[in-house]
Amino acid sequence: MSDIVRVFEVGPRDGLQNESVPVGTQTRVDLIERLTSAGIRRLEAGSFVSPKAVPQMAGTAEVLRALRPSPGVTLSVLVPNIRGMESAVNAGIREVAVFASASETFSQRNIGCRIEESFARFEPVMAIARDNGIAVRGYVSCVLGCPYEGEIALGSVVGTSQRLAAMGCYEISLGDTIGIGTAGSTRRIFGAVCDELGHDLVAGHFHDTRGQALANVLACLDMGIRSFDSSVAGLGGCPYAPGASGNLASEDLVYMLDGLGMETGISLDLLADAGDFISGALGRPTGSRVGKALHGVRRAARAA
Questions:
Q1: From CA 95, how far away is CA 45, in angstroms rounded?
Q2: What pLDDT was estimated at residue 240?
Q3: Which of 31, 134, 194, 291 could crosslink 129 through cysteines, CB 3.0-4.6 Å?
Q4: CA–CA distance from 226 to each of 26, 65, 232, 273, 290 (Å)?
């Protein structure tokens, strides 16, 4: 199995969208450029959703226009429907993401429609993507549990993942939206999806609500999965998932992968700097354990 791990940074979208106060355009641009300078090569830059629904993501087009070209970096945006896809095309974006749920209740609470309706919305999005040579990544939420329904049927997770792959998504990110998963449940659910799609099409997206995110990543690594979502400074959560805390911190993920001898191409020091930057902009400490440790070491060194 490959020792190269692909880290997909979701902080500028999935992280910041859960903030109570919107972050300014220049701060979002600075964060993205700090992340790419650290070696991040796949990154969610924002989303084209209604600003009434997610005011924190208003101005995504302005953010994209303000970013300096960065060779080898893939910027992605979340698009919920054909209107969002048209905005992505106009912005010159080369990758988008669509979002489905394995839970009927969560689908209705989060995007206002049933699972079947969500796939009907995706069809014109995928057609536009094919016509314009735009790659599409798929998300499946609540794969290890739902805040409203509890345990989700394995068949729903596998079936939703299969449908996204059949529509043309090049990668399916399976999300533990409320951070309820364990290494055991991760092996069972992710293993079943890998059996159908192959591990190269599967990515892991873990929230660290119960401190199990890194254990779940290890379980995925053992299965051959080599793509993981994470959020600098542990930014994130979900407004439609009561009790869910932030995403797995990118700094914590990269530190563990470095310790395992895995290749990410990411500088942990520069990544931690990006985490300190956005945490300072938000006026609170970083949510990354590794970030906090490095910050303490640097403070002690300056005082010596």
A1: 10
A2: 58
A3: 134
A4: 32, 31, 19, 25, 21
Enumerate the β-bridge partners of residue 101. Answer: 141
In a domain, residue 38? The reply is: yes
Catalytic residue among 142, 169, 194, 238: 238
Q: Is residue 1 part of a domain?
A: no
* pLDDT for position 177: 92
Residue 164 within any structural domain of the chain:
yes
Answer whether 181's CB lies under 8 Å from 212's CB: yes
Q: CB–CB of 88/44 below 8 Å? A: no
Q: Taking the chain (304 residues) in consecutive chunks of 10 residues, what is each chunk's mean pLDDT? A: 93 92 93 98 96 92 95 96 96 96 91 90 96 98 94 97 98 96 98 98 96 97 98 82 78 98 98 97 94 87 77
Q: Report yes or no: 140 and 164 within 8 Å, Cβ to Cβ.
A: yes
The C-alpha atoms of residue 232 and residue 64 are separated, in whole angstroms, by 19
Structural domain boundaries, residue 224:
6-303
Question: Which amino acid is present at 140?
Answer: V
CATH of the domain at 177: 3.20.20.70
Beta strand ranges found along the chain (DSSP E): 6-9, 42-47, 74-78, 95-101, 135-141, 171-176, 202-206, 227-230
User: What is the model's pLDDT at position 188?
Assistant: 98
Number of domains in the chain: 1
